């Protein structure tokens, strides 16, 4: 592993650069002035190719991963995140997991697009908080952050709790985030609420919706009830 480095990974990625695809991805990830992805740059590499390349660099030390996630190119940061997740999942003890968890939080503002968050927050932050519930306060702090990506990390991380059959964490953070002004957050909250209804308890989801329906953004509501039968969906949309 000693021969592997951030620079060698970046070199492999740049060799796959596709200008036409980079323009398409730039539009897809909203990189225009004032949009959530403003200032992001793309090499034009598909996610499967990035995953394949990143797999060969699993085991990179945090110092090298740091160089990847501060890179201006989206695919380089993605590769760094994928390596970090793989390293976390291969961790052999609590000390290694905690080190990666803290590294992730320290660099959270560099995990600055929705795909980067969604591929990593449950697998690192969420998993660590499930293992050590006393760290749930970290998610509440992130939910109150002024940074969009830290707020998204907080709610998406609760997917790990949902998969373990717990919904209270998602509900608690959703209530904090219901007044968020960003559409990306409305979608994220609605997505996690929907997963509660699918995987844990439809009744508890409906109770939450009934309690909060008047203050829920419509986007969040639509996502949350996406799998309801048509009649039920229409009833909620009319409330």
Task: Spell out the key features of this protein.
mainly alpha; 239 residues; 16 helices; globular
Give me the secondary-structure topology.
Blueprint (H helix, E strand, L loop, with lengths): L5 H9 L4 H10 L18 H9 L6 H8 L4 H16 L4 H13 L7 H5 L3 H10 L4 H8 L4 H10 L1 H5 L4 H10 L5 H17 L2 H11 L5 H7 L5 H9 L1
Can you walk through the features of this model?
The chain has 239 residues and is mainly α. The chain has 16 helices and no strands. It has helices spanning 6-14, 19-28, 47-55, 62-69, 74-89, 94-106, 114-118, 122-131, 136-143, 148-157, 159-163, 168-177, 183-199, 202-212, 218-224, 230-238. The chain starts with 5 loop residues before the first helix and ends with a helix.
**Can you count the beta strands?**
0
**What's the helix count?**
16
SSE series: HHHHHHHHHHHHHHHH
Q: Give the proportion of residues in helices.
A: 55-70%
**Which class best fits the helix and strand makeup?**
mainly alpha
Strand portion: under 5%
Largest sheet: none
Task: Give the N-to-C terminal Cα separation.
Answer: 58 Å
Mean pLDDT: 95
Radius of gyration computed on alpha carbons: 19 Å
Globular, elongated, flat, extended or rod-shaped: what is the shape? globular
Q: Uncertain runs with pLDDT below 50, 5 residues or more?
A: none
Short summary of the structure?
The chain has 16 helices and no strands. It has 239 residues and is an all-alpha fold. 39% of the residues are buried.
């Amino acid at each position: 592993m000693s021969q592997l480095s951030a620079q060698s990974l970046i070199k492999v990625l740049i060799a796959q650069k596709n200008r036409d695809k980079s323009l398409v991805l730039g539009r897809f990830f909203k990189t225009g002035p004032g949009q959530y992805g403003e200032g992001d740059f793309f090499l034009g590499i598909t996610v499967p190719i990035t995953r394949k390349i990143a797999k060969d660099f699993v085991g990179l030390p945090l110092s090298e991963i740091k160089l990847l996630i501060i890179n201006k190119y989206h695919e380089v940061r993605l590769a760094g995140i994928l390596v970090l997740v793989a390293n976390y999942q291969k961790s052999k003890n609590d000390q290694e997991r905690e080190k990666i968890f803290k590294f992730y939080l320290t660099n959270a503002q560099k995990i600055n697009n929705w795909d980067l968050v969604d591929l990593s927050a449950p697998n690192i932050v969420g998993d660590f908080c499930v293992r050590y519930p006393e760290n749930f306060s970290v998610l509440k702090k992130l939910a109150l952050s002024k940074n969009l990506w830290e707020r998204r990390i907080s709610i998406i991380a609760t997917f790990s709790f949902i998969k373990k059959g717990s919904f209270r964490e998602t509900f608690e953070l959703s209530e904090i985030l219901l007044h968020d002004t960003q559409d990306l957050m409305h979608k994220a909250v609605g997505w996690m609420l929907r997963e509660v209804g699918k995987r844990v308890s439809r009744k508890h989801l409906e109770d939450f919706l009934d309690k909060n329906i008047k203050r829920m953004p419509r986007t969040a509501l639509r996502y949350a009830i996406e799998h309801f039968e048509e009649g039920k969906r229409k009833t909620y949309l009319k409330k």
